[in-house]
Each structure stands twice: as C-alpha cells, then as structure tokens.
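Fold Annotation — chain and its backbone
Next Lines — sequence and tokenised fold

***
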Amino acid sequence: MRLVRFLAEGRPVCGIVNGDEIAELEGNFFSPFKMLQARHSLSRVVLLPPCLPSKVVAVGLNYRDHAEELGFPVPDDPILFLKPATTVIGPGEPILYPAMSGRVDYEAELGVVIRDHVRNISPGEAGSHILGYTCANDVTARDLQKKDGQWTRAKSFDTFCPIGPWIETDVDPGDLQVEAYLNNERKQRSRTSQFIFKVPFLVSFISKVMTLLPGDLIITGTPSGIGPMKPGDEIEVRIEGIGSLRNTVT
C-alpha cells in the first residue's frame, strides 16, 4: 500500500493511493482506521509529509563510498544524530536556504517510518515495527558542519528534511536503487545493498538508545555524490519501488 497525507478541502487527512486516485481514510496509519467513500484525484491534491515524526533519527556514513568521499573511516557502530521535527516538509514544499550558510547540500536517503512504540528490540523483531518506507533528503549546511565540528546546526534548519511522496508498505529495503537528480541531472546513485548497517540492525540499534514512537522517521545515510544546491534549483530523490520526491530551493 501507498499511504499518504494530503489536504482535502483545506483539512489534512490520510489516504491510500490506488493508481491515480486516493481513497480517504477515517483515522490515521498508527491506529485502527476505515476506508471512506470519498475519493480524490492524486494529481489535484496537495501532498503533505506522509508522517509527522516526534524526531528524525539520522544515520551518518552508512555507505562506504560516502565515508571515503568525506575522508572519514568506516565506523564500527552507526553514527547517529537527530534532526528536529521542524525540519520536515512534504513534496513540492520549498527548501529555505539559510542566510548564515554559504553551501547547502542535498543527500538522498531511504526513510524508515516506525509503526508503534519500540524499545530495546532485536534485529529479528524490527520488521514488525516498521510501517513502511519513504524518500528523504537530509539537507545539510556543509560549511557549517565543517566549521562546528558537530552536526546539529548544519542539519537542523527549518525545511531541511523533505520526505515523501508517501509511505510504501510493500517493499523490501535490502536492495533498492537510491538516486538524486539536481535540475534533472543525476548526481547520486547507489543501492541499499551497499549499506554498512542494514535496516533491521539500525532499528534495533537505535531502539537500544532511545524509544521510538509511532511515526518517527529513521533516515539511513546517503551515497557518494553529495553536492551543493542554490536558490532556484530543483532537487529530486528517486528510490526504486517507492517513488520520487521533488523540492525546490528558495
């Protein structure tokens, strides 16, 4: 299933995508819901972020080629950092270029949406706690990341975590192609089979550090090929089996 959040007559609602149509739901994805009679044309609605996480848990350096690109050693354990909920925007929403930065980069990533309360689980249990997967862009003020020596400011500006267009529940995250296109020119391309730390391990590892809540988002690292964006650019994240996420820089 493809689960979406969208505006219907000015109100945010949830739905299931079926071809070019959305079936409206009563309730949300994290509690019992039922399908309503209302149907909406996918091309005529405004899509919202498909989840509203209490936190975005991000994984640094999860592709070997990206670690080499940045000159960092391959980590022994996942490198975790947080992006606040205020970074999250949906498809088509603008990424705001902060005045204090001189270089803002795209980072195409697979997003993992958590289904329920998760704490201290094993990798074998992770699958039952995952609602599905989405496209994500871990936008980064690269100059500030280097200046600060840690990543909070560089990763936390409002609008710095576009996600969408929906949550895909029926996809295996083990070997998906992940790409980034800047103004329709491909800049990043790799496969999740190249992860240093696989999705089940990541969910388990993170759950032993912090409690994950329904709708929380894990973004799983980016391939090599990161690069700068400027105002007026369009950045697209494409993930095999999920879809395409487009945003412009303002």
Q: What stands out?
A: Residues 56-248 form a domain with the Fumarylacetoacetate hydrolase; domain 2 fold (CATH 3.90.850.10).
